[in-house]
Fold this protein.
Amino acid sequence: MTDSGTHSHPPTPQGEWWKLIAMGTVLAGLVFLTFFYEYDPAKPVGSGPPVESVSVDTPELDLAMLDLAHDDTRIERLVIEPEPLAHLLAKSINVVPSVARALGMPDEPMPIDEMRANPSAFRGQYLWCKGKLRYLSHGKSGHPVEGYRIYSGWLTTDDGHDVLFRVSIEPRDVQIGDYVRMEGFFLKLHDSNSAPEADRVPVLVGPELYKSFPPWKGVTELDQEILGRVDDELFVGGDPAGAPVEKGTGPWIEIEHSQYLPLWHLASYARETTDRRSFDEWRRIRPFVSKQQLDDIRLGKTERGTPFRILGAFIQGRTWEARPNPLGIEYWSEAWVQIQDLSGKIVPVWIPHKIRAQRNDSLEIKSFYFRRLMYDTRDGDRFTPVFVADDLHAFEPPPPTAGIVALKWSVFGGVVCLAGLFFWIARRDRERHRQHLTEMDARRRRRRAAAREAAMAE
């Protein structure tokens, strides 16, 4: 005897588990996308190698020769020993800024009080100082290298310390009273009873004396008269119908020869004011993304110092040693950034220090318009605006708005409801499975009972 009718296949436990796994995976993905995933296309600026690295040879000093310099007593300090002086004059004559850095020249000026307390700890180190030139000799013979003379002098630093120096190259562009920078090897402390009177004054021996500038106070307001001194007219007389300016002048002048008052003025302004603007204030500043903005700069309609956000990818960069300047800038870097929203145009950004970046780093540079520039390419001459910034800035996604937060919570509510629906479906399937098993067991029992009754009837 058999049951008649249609039998449905029971849901299997294996099917339930796969369903639960699938539902759990979808739920976890929704929760992650809603609350934990942050889209950030930027790679960290600064993770790459320096844009430029130079290997240089440095002079090796004879320590035994330096030991001949003595400054423990006043009698010893009254004399400048000729042997170590000649040694340092010869070793320093070819020291250029890159060699000075390789010698470990510090970023800060020489610590004169510490040198007076322990001069032997500093002997032979390559140091520097700035100050007002008080005396400069006409040069005398006795230089260890043929063709050179010894020029001696002294300067007074901003904090009132005197420093004596000996150099090998005649200082032609400095006069008494000028602000100068002296770099050289520390020889000893010196005393003198005659002009200039000296008491435990450090002596530096270097290649030459550099003209410098007194330190500026930070620029917090732009002076358009200073910025207006930039020579970047694209055509003779500024007439768009005129003849192009000759190469090497005007808009063809690049960063090496643009290091003068207008660039220093804008660089100081960028340093002082960039961080004073909040994230929201910078986001309200228009990005440089339209052809109209480019045309306005080309025609001279855009005021110098106008802030722009440069949104693009880092392509390449170069670094130069800075000329003497009142801001203490040691290097200038030029970063070329490709702006996809401007048909892939590449623009330069000038930055007053070394930069570290990787190609295709996503940037949002807080910059200020400086000047117009013409440059050569394989396809001919190109025009571009130049911007100045205090640094490269990685792109930062904006914080979520109230609408985005509300949307996230709405999605979260939907996820919770969906999770509840998943578990209700799973529980219903389990109940159906249990009920089906109960019914199957009852049918098997009825069949067995019917079989027993048939056997007894026979």
